[in-house]
Amino acid sequence: MPSILQRAKAALTARDNGALNRERATVDLDAKLLQQVRPYSLASAKKLGNLKRLAASTTERSIEGDFVECGTYKGGSAAVLGSALTPGRHLWLYDSFEGMPEVKEIDGADAGEWVGRLRASDDDVREILTLVGLSPSQYTIRKGWFDHTFLQQLPERVAVLHCDADWHASVTVVLETFYPRVAEGGVVVLDDFGWWEGCREAFYDFCARHGEKPLLERVDCDQAYWIKGKTNNRTGQD
Description:
7 strands, alpha/beta, globular, Rossmann fold, 8 helices, single chain
């Protein structure tokens, strides 16, 4: 039977290897895919690589559910998620395609300057999804404001929830709507956690309301993510 010291060394090795693999994955997005999606995304290569890694990990870990993105812009990160789709999964994309919505004080001093900016078209999204090889049967685009589109049919189960919704109200409705549908072991990614105050406060408020205590991980200065139900990193996974 391994001694306490041997078990501790094994745990440290697993942790270090896991950390190394995570670091490699966040910067090692396939060059061709990165070149394809770059004109359609504002995210860094590290964030896009991490998104691909997390999506792929749900298949490796046999996590059930679809991929959901709220805040799609031109579709670059959606294409990265789509590149990790496997049979039986569907990609759901939600965006107003009218630019960034109105803000409140909680969203931060600079937020108001962005209202109406970053406007894209659902045609942009279809274009990049076609470019990376997805067929229309593999994805659904819900065009409109969240408070309307979330009233339509929703995926029953979610393996990856990518929230790029920026403001407090938007992030709140995303988490309230989809988090109960995220499977245990599923991934939640907050694109703007370190960038916009409203996103971060929405996360804290949601956790307080529902008694959630996620093990939050960080990538770059703004992306944050967690694995639903995961309580520690001792295994060195994800």
